[in-house]
Amino acid sequence: MRHDYAYPFRIDATSHQAAQSSYSDHVGQMIRQVLLTDPGERVCLPEFGCGLRRLVFAPNSDALRATTKLLVMQSLSRWLAGQIEVKDVRISGADKADEGVLEIAIDYLLIETQEQQQATIEVR
């Protein structure tokens, strides 16, 4: 069973070493990191990220959902190409448009284990 460092990085209280998580949890954490990081936020890798938070206050429309879906698929394909294969991206949040919330559900395949997984991210 493969394990990787947990994100965000932290020290495990019991072992006093870097906390670890299962491979599938680690990939889910990497997805959140890619999607919630704005390009330019990382000094040494300025192109990294998706920039979803910029879209939260855009007018809720079909164009917003299409743009969000495209950004998510492109970002995950670019930064996690060796880890996952994105199968589907669904955007919702019309019922929370007044609150400035986007809900993103991602269906993906873990390439290493061939397991189907789903990640849901709420962007505020």
Would you mind describing this structure in some detail?
- The protein has one domain: Nuclear Transport Factor 2, Chain: A (Roll).
- The chain is built from two helices and five strands.
- The strands form two sheets. Strands 3-4-5 form a three-stranded antiparallel sheet, covered by helices on one side. A two-stranded antiparallel sheet has the order 1-2.
- It starts with a strand and ends with a strand.
The assigned structural class equals: alpha+beta
Biggest sheet: strands side by side, in what order?
3-4-5
DSSP helix fraction: 25-40%
- Number of distinct helices: 2
How many domains, as an integer? 1
- Give the mean pLDDT: 88
- The name of the CATH architecture is Roll
- From the spread of the alpha carbons, the general shape counts as globular
Sequence of secondary-structure elements: EEHHEEE
Please give the number of β-strands: 5
Strand content: 25-35%
CATH topology: Nuclear Transport Factor 2, Chain: A
Provide the gyration radius in Å. Answer: 16 Å
CATH class category: Alpha Beta
Distance between the termini: 34 Å
Largest sheet: 3 strands, antiparallel
Low confidence ranges:
none
